[in-house]
Amino acid sequence: MKFTELGLVPEILRAIADQGYETPTPIQSQAIPVVLSGRDLMACAQTGTGKTAGFTLPILNRLSESRAATTGPRKIRVLILTPTRELAAQVGESVATYGAHLPFKSLVIFGGVSMNPQISALRKGVDILVATPGRLLDHAQQRNVDLSGVEVLVLDEADRMLDMGFIHDIKRVIALVPKKRQTLLFSATFSDEIRTLASNFLTDPGYVESERRNTASELVTQYVYKVDRERKRDLLVELIREKGWYQVLVFTRTKWGANGLAEKLVKSGIEADAIHGNKSQNARTRALANFKSGKLHVLVATDIAARGIDINELPHVVNFELPNVAEDYVHRIGRTGRAGSEGSAVSLVCVDEHKLLKDIERLIKKPIDVLEYPGYAPDPSIRAEPIQMRSAGPRGGGQRSNGGRSGGGGASRGSAPKAPGGASAGNGGRPGGGSHRSGSRHR
Ligand code: AMP
User: 25: Cβ below 6 Å to ligand 1?
Assistant: First the structure.
């Protein structure tokens, strides 16, 4: 299948060619025709499958087909909801990139930064709005945003939005958009809650699936080093040095764990930084940019902060601690071995985590090779201890409870030429341009 066979307008094909994409990914070749037909869609796709273009390209196409019919001031015609500010910013960049040769205006809004630049950008008129639910509702309450013209609603990473407790916010947003609309639901997993959401808000949806549920990519080499709890940090330093790893995404379970580990790595002479929900948006954006450019060798992240980060062909993912929820393991290692390149996913597992490892193996339906690193064999006299989480979130993950609502910023992107993939600074609210509201689930 080629992009030219999908019936996309020349402006979009040009934008695709600008990106150097040659063929549609499986999710794209399945989803694009369904979306173009105007049908609702339920898609099972993880980050890294090309899902964002899977919905953005046909949406832009539909807008461009009906644009002649619209007169008068711009109304929001497409609303894309995402769980986190990072994902919102990335989806906004994709909309801008794929729409570079079309006249539509898009805007990204999330919390944690001043509302004023977002208000003025909204006033100027927007065709496509990408938003985290909390900040969108703040604007709706203040009547800054009119959703009565929405033709297409996208719920991106719907499973994560539910995990983060956004179900009521989603329902409130849906109540603000017209009943007659196209709804697209993307989710990495299809739990019963997701199915209920779909049956309540989608009409006769087409169903597409990018890969088998909960399978880890064949291209990722996965293995476990058994190691004592207190020696994980030393082992990680050793592994990074000995193996010459240069771009390593390391997952910890908690924000304080991420900070402590990044500090330890820096003390050991390794360029490292941490991203998590307590860091300012500026600090997070900077760390991510440095990591992508190769300046930072190691980025330590919690699950929620890493969700939606778009880093291609990441060579190494390390689970410094196993996640409490087995599905998160699949998300984490999905960061590597993407787009056809090979990657390694290494987990440092101590005696406390044996049950978590079993859960993961059950989910991915295969055992993970267990190795011992010379000099780091576990001490058999050490007993398992309960896993410490500083605060319990909805599924026991401390960092889950403040991930989304604290999302923050705004970036608009219209027809004016701007750097590819960059967010506009025109409204002063680009991602990273603002102060952070800590623990801001509750407004
Ligand atoms: P996503 O799953 O939407 O986060 O996309 C993952 C990455 O794949 C992004 O960096 C996209 O730029 C890239 N991508 C999307 N579609 C294609 C394609 N058809 N060919 C090559 N790369 C793509």
Answer: yes
